[in-house]
Specification:
heterodimer; A: mainly alpha; Butyryl-CoA Dehydrogenase, subunit A, domain 3; 2 domains; two-stranded antiparallel ribbon; 7 helices; B: mainly alpha; 3-stranded antiparallel beta sheet; elongated
C-alpha cells in the first residue's frame, strides 16, 4: 500500500453513514452494509454550502439589528438587541456570564460565517495550504455551531419564567432570524466536505 | 465480495490499514489528526444500560418543574416544555418549533433509537430496520442540544438572580442526570463495533431464511 494515498484514487469510496469502505469497480449506488446512497464526496458540496452561507449572512443582519427580546415593565417596553443584552450583563457586574454570552452569540456565529467563507474560497480556488490546519479549523467550526443556540434557549426560559402582571419578557423578531442563522450555518458546515481541501493539495 | 482490508479517514480520505485500537486506546488519522475510534469496554451492554436509564430519566426531566421563580409576590414555575408553550403563545412559532425539536423531541428519539439498537444487539435479535435506525441516530447526533440547554438555564438563572427569588425543582436534577447519561452514552457507543454487529446479524438472518 502506498504511503499517503487517497482512498478515492485507489478505487474506494467510504460510506458517509456507516463508514464501510466500498470498491468503486462495480460502481455501486448504495452501501452494501447500510443501504445509504454512496457518494465519493458530498454531492454539490460547494454549491449547497455557498447557498446556505449566503442565506445566513443575510439573516445575520436582522438578527443583530432587531430586538431579540423585549422587557415589558408596567406597560413600558424596553427592547434588547443581542449586543445590548451583553452590555447590560457586563454593566451589572456579571462579567463571566456576559463574556460567555458574548462568545456564544456574537463571536461564534460571526467567526463561523467568516470561517466557512474561507473554507469555501480555499476549496474553490484550490489554495495550497496546510490542509491539516484547515481541517482543524473546519472541525472547530462544526463543533462550536450548536452552542450558539444558547441565546435562543435562554429566551425560551426567560419568556416562560418572567410572565407576571407587572413584568413580562417577550421574544423579539431577531430571535427567529438568529435561530435561522444558527441552523443554516450548522447545515452549511455539515454540507461542506473537508476532503475537498485535501483533494486540491498537489504535494502532500 | 466487497470485504476490503483497508479503511479510510472520513475527513481527509487517507487510505488506512484497518484500525486495531484496543479498549482504552485512541486511533487518530496520521494525516489530518481526526479521532478515528476510541473503543470502549462492553460497548453494547453499556449503551443498552445507559439507554434504559436515559429513557426513564427523560420523563421526570420533562414533566417535573425545573425552576421556580418568585418576583414581587408572584410565583411561577418553569417546566422543560413550558418554554416552548410560552414562545408559541408569543407568536414565535418557528423558534418554538426549534426549541421543541432540539430540547425535547430529538433527545427522546435519540434515546429510543439507541435503546432499540443496543437492545437488539444485546439480545442478538435481527431486525431489518437496524441499519435505518443507526443511520437516523447518526444524523440526529448533532441536533440533540441538552447540554446547550443546561448552559442557558445557568445563564438565565444568573440573569434573574438579582431580580427574583429562584428555587430549583426535581425536574432540574433529573435533567442534569439525563445530560450525564447522554454524555456517557455518546462516549460509550462504539460506531464501528455497532455497524459490524448489525452487519453480522443481518447476514446471519439472510443465511438462515
Amino acid at each position: 500500500m502506498q504511503a499517503k494515498a487517497n482512498a478515492l484514487s485507489q478505487g474506494f469510496i467510504r460510506c458517509h453513514d456507516c463508514g464501510y469502505l466500498v470498491k468503486t469497480v462495480n460502481q455501486p449506488s448504495s452501501c452494501p452494509r447500510c443501504d445509504s446512497p454512496l457518494h465519493a464526496r458530498h454531492p454539490h458540496s460547494l454549491q449547497r454550502t455557498t447557498a446556505l452561507l449566503l442565506s445566513s449572512f443575510l439573516l445575520y443582519i436582522p438578527a443583530n439589528i432587531f430586538p431579540i427580546m423585549i422587557v415589558n415593565q408596567f406597560g413600558v417596553g424596553e427592547p434588547n438587541t443581542i449586543a445590548g443584552g451583553i452590555v447590560e450583563l457586563i454593566d451589572s457586574g456579571m462579567i463571566p456570564i456576559g463574556l460567555l454570552v458574548l462568545v456564544a452569540s456574537i463571536l461564534v456565529p460571526s467567526s463561523k460565517l467568516i470561517g466557512i467563507s474561507l473554507l469555501l474560497l480555499c476549496a474553490h480556488f484550490r489554495w495550497q495550504v496546510n490542509a491539516r490546519r484547515w481541517t482543524t479549523m473546519y472541525r472547530v467550526i462544526a463543533f462550536v455551531g450548536r452552542w450558539s443556540m444558547l441565546d435562543i434557549f435562554m429566551i425560551s426560559i426567560l419568556v416562560d419564567l418572567v410572565n407576571f402582571n407587572g413584568v413580562q419578557i417577550i421574544a423579539g423578531p431577531a430571535a427567529t432570524a438568529f435561530a435561522a442563522v444558527v441552523i443554516l450555518t450548522m447545515f452549511a458546515a455539515e454540507n461542506f466536505d473537508p476532503r475537498l481541501l485535501w483533494d486540491n493539495q498537489q504535494n502532500l | 465480495m466487497n470485504i476490503t482490508h483497508y479503511d479510510a479517514c472520513p475527513e481527509c480520505d487517507l487510505l488506512l490499514n484497518p484500525n486495531t485500537a484496543s479498549v482504552g486506546e485512541k486511533a487518530h488519522c496520521p494525516r489530518c489528526g481526526l479521532l478515528l475510534s476510541r473503543p470502549s469496554k462492553r460497548s453494547v451492554e453499556r449503551t443498552f444500560a445507559l439507554s434504559i436509564a436515559g429513557f426513564i430519566l427523560f420523563f421526570p426531566a420533562n414533566l417535573l418543574p425545573m425552576v421556580g421563580i418568585t418576583m414581587m409576590g408572584n410565583a411561577n414555575t418553569g417546566v422543560l416544555y413550558s418554554g416552548v408553550v410560552a414562545l408559541f403563545n408569543n407568536g414565535m412559532i418557528a423558534v418554538a418549533a426549534v426549541v421543541f425539536l432540539a430540547s425535547i423531541l430529538f433527545p427522546l428519539v435519540h434515546i429510543i433509537l439507541s435503546l432499540l439498537i443496543s437492545g437488539h444487539l444485546y439480545f442478538n435479535s435481527p431486525n431489518r430496520y437496524l441499519a435505518h435506525w443507526m443511520r437516523w441516530m447518526h444524523h440526529l447526533d448533532e441536533w440533540v442540544m441538552l447540554e446547550v440547554y443546561m448552559l442557558s438555564i445557568i445563564v438565565a438563572c444568573v440573569k434573574l438572580m438579582s431580580l427574583a427569588k429562584l428555587e430549583f425543582g426535581w425536574g432540574l436534577y433529573a435533567f442534569i442526570a439525563l445530560i450525564v447519561i447522554t454524555t456517557l452514552l455518546t462516549g460509550n457507543l462504539d460506531n464501528d463495533l455497532f455497524w459490524q454487529r448489525i452487519h453480522q446479524l443481518s447476514n446471519r438472518n439472510n443465511n438462515a431464511s
